[in-house]
Design brief:
The chain is an all-alpha fold and about 100 residues long. It has 5 helices and no strands. The chain is globular.
């Protein structure tokens, strides 16, 4: 019997400040796709535990793996100078409606 995946909400704040926020975005993208943790990990060629750690916001997951997972699941990450972060975050917030 296939496991039912319950979608979780994508974080509303566009500025990434913590490992937990990245994990929440990855989990939201995975669950919106209807993928189980195991299916998504297999698709990205990483261990289920590693994906679980990333979604839990554990800082031990390597940056390269985190970026690869985010890209594979459709999570876009942006960088900006700190002085521009609030302005960019506001623009993203407004664009989301």
């Amino acid at each position: 019997m296939a496991r039912r995946v319950v979608p979780t909400a994508f974080p509303t704040a566009p500025q990434l400040r913590t490992c937990e926020e990245l994990g929440a975005a990855v989990r939201a993208a995975r669950t919106a796709s209807g993928l189980t943790l195991e299916e998504a990990a297999l698709a990205v060629s990483i261990a289920k535990q590693t994906l679980g750690d990333l979604e839990a916001g554990k800082p031990t997951v390597g940056l390269g793996i985190a970026l690869r997972v985010a890209q594979a699941l459709g999570v876009s990450l942006f960088i900006a100078p700190a002085g521009e972060a609030e302005q960019i975050a506001q623009l993203i917030h407004e664009a989301r409606g």
